[in-house]
Amino acid sequence: MRAGLLILGLAVVAGCGDDERSPGGDGGSQKEAATLPAPLTFQVSGGLRLRLDKITIQPDGSAQVKTIRGEKPVKLSKAELSEVVDALERANLEDVPENSRSPRPIPDAFGYRFIYKDRQVDTDQESNPEALEPLTGALTRLVDRYGPK
């Protein structure tokens, strides 16, 4: 009986191995840390409660968040920086027209400004290109998470 329990116990332990993938695998925890090629600034303004928010992220993940309540330095986690880098790459910001605003502004709608590699792209809630939505969302969440309360 004891031998059977011992074998059963060893089988359970053997099945509880480390599930991390090797560096050559497809997306394991050994992923190289993401970095931005250049600083990225994002501004959001407008809305019913009047947002005037700004975040500037440096290539190493250090950032400065500014809201109407003040300014605060922060350090993004590796996961947060990786999300921004991935969204920025997918957005192809260099292909978005610099003036991507709605022809007729909507009262209280949000306006967005991206400044990256000496290029400024302005858009708004109504006409924000679909390719920019993940980047807009990620940066807005960071401002909401780290902005002075």
List the helices and strands and how they pair.
Layout (H helix, E strand, L loop, with lengths): L1 H13 L25 E7 L4 E7 L4 E6 L2 E6 L2 H14 L7 E2 L9 E7 L2 E6 L8 H14 L3
Parallel strand pairs: 5-7
Antiparallel strand pairs: 1-2, 1-6, 2-3, 3-4, 6-7
Q: What does this entry look like structurally?
A:
Strands 4-3-2-1-6-7-5 form a 7-stranded mixed β-sheet, covered by helices on one side. The chain is α+β, with helices and mostly antiparallel strands and 149 residues long. Helices cover 28% and strands 28% of the residues. The longest helix is centred in the middle third of the chain and has 14 residues, at 78-91. 21% of the residues are buried. Mean pLDDT is 82; it is low at 1-30.
Essential attributes:
alpha+beta; 149 residues; 3 helices; Mago nashi protein
Class per helix and strand makeup: alpha+beta
Strand content: 25-35%
CATH architecture designation: 2-Layer Sandwich
CATH topology term? Mago nashi protein
CATH class: Alpha Beta
Briefly characterize the structure:
The protein is α+β, with helices and mostly antiparallel strands. The longest helix is centred in the middle third of the chain and has 14 residues, at 78-91.
